[in-house]
């Protein structure tokens, strides 16, 4: 017949065990083990301790024996758990996720890969999280192939970082096909416990093109809405810039390579107005033009959820937004040097080239 181990505690051991048993921050398991040892030290048998703590007698005997052999350190460590070891091949799950595709989809989901690998979807999710895999997400990219990329990059970033004296730097572009959208049914307003509602379908009431020039120095915007975006409308906008800027200032305009910006008629007008100097961003590098940030703001803050029954109503909303913006303009601060940007582009090109070479082989 097995005899339960005798537990004798000194004052320090008893104090430490009582602190664990009464603590609100220690784990429930450790607090229970401390109670087992304290009751055992009072001379109670395993059966009585199990009945008092409402746990199994075998569990009481196990932790009583461990304390008798190893003291407090022995009960602070969990016992190794039994059962069959996992046979999930995490490396295979990662390989299938990154190197294969399901038969009828463009990416794996936890359930489709779980069925394929013969495991649970929670197992797949756990492995994905451990390896930072997110097959449902895709990031867009566009690398410029402009042969004069470096030259144009240094030119534009130089204007941002060290603007010329007695001159204005204006980031110019057009936001074309801005739609006047009206919802087919009125939605419900935002209230506690409910998001604002809006129908998924809409009625198109025409479009307008927003021409904008962002002053890099103070963040003010010169803007004009026009029906089209040909070289004729671009010339009208240049004339508006000419009227609304100080005559004694040279103007450096940053624009993309859209054909209307380089039309012969535009070039002839620029030749007659020498205070205008054009600077073009590299092809496929619109992110270099800071006016794109302004276009993002007006889209998210005013246009995307707006309801417009006509183009004049849309134009009025745009004009109102820009007028409000210009009352307290805030310039966007450019911090990246041309060298930093170029190094990042070179790294991206190298990664892309290596992946393309792997795909070919």
Question: How is this structure best described in words?
Answer:
- With 361 residues, this protein is α/β, with parallel strands linked by helices.
- Helices cover 47% and strands 13% of the residues.
- The protein is built from 14 helices and five strands.
- The chain has a five-stranded mixed β-sheet with strand order 3-2-1-4-5.
- α1 (11-22) runs antiparallel to α2 (28-41).
- The model has no long low-confidence stretch (mean pLDDT 90).
Key structural traits:
Nucleotidyltransferase, domain 5, 3 domains, 361 residues, alpha/beta, 5 strands, single chain
Uncertain segments are none
Assign the CATH class of the largest domain.
Alpha Beta
What is the total domain count?
Answer: 3
Strand content: 5-15%
Radius of gyration: 35 Å
> Could you please say which CATH topology of the largest domain applies here?
Nucleotidyltransferase, domain 5
Query: How is the largest sheet built, in terms of strand order?
Result: 3-2-1-4-5
Helix content: 40-55%
């Amino acid at each position: 017949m097995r005899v339960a181990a005798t537990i004798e505690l000194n004052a320090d051991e008893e104090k430490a065990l009582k602190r664990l048993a009464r603590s609100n921050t220690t784990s429930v398991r450790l607090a229970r083990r401390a109670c087992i040892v304290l009751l055992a030290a009072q001379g109670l048998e395993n059966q009585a301790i199990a009945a008092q703590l409402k746990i199994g007698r075998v569990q009481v005997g196990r932790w009583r024996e461990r304390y008798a052999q190893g003291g407090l350190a022995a009960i602070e460590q969990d016992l190794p758990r039994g059962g069959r070891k996992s046979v999930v091949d995490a490396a295979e799950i990662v390989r299938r996720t990154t190197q294969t595709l399901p038969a009828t989809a463009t990416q794996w989901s936890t359930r489709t890969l779980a069925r394929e690998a013969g495991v649970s979807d929670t197992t797949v999710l756990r492995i994905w999280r451990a390896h930072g895999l997110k097959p449902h997400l895709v990031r867009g990219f566009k690398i410029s192939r402009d042969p004069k990329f470096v030259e144009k990059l240094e030119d534009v970033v130089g204007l941002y970082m060290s603007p010329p004296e007695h001159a204005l730097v204006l980031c110019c572009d057009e936001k074309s096909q801005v739609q006047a959208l009206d919802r087919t049914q009125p939605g419900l307003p935002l209230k506690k416990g409910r998001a604002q509602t809006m129908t998924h379908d809409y009625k198109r009431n025409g479009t307008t093109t927003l021409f904008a020039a962002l002053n890099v120095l103070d963040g003010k915007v010169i803007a004009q809405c026009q029906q089209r975006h040909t070289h004729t409308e671009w010339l009208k906008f240049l004339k508006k810039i000419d009227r609304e800027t100080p005559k004694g200032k040279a103007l450096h305009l940053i624009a993309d390579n859209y054909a209307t910006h380089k039309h012969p008629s535009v070039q002839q007008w620029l030749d007659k107005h020498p205070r205008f100097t054009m600077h073009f961003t590299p092809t496929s590098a619109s992110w270099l033009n800071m006016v794109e940030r302004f276009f993002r703001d007006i889209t998210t803050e005013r246009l995307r959820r707006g309801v417009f029954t006509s183009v004049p109503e849309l134009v009025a909303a745009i004009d109102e937004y820009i007028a409000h913006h210009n009352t307290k303009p805030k310039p966007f601060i450019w911090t990246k040097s041309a060298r930093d940007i170029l190094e990042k582009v070179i790294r991206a090109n190298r990664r892309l080239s290596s992946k393309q070479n792997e795909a070919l082989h």
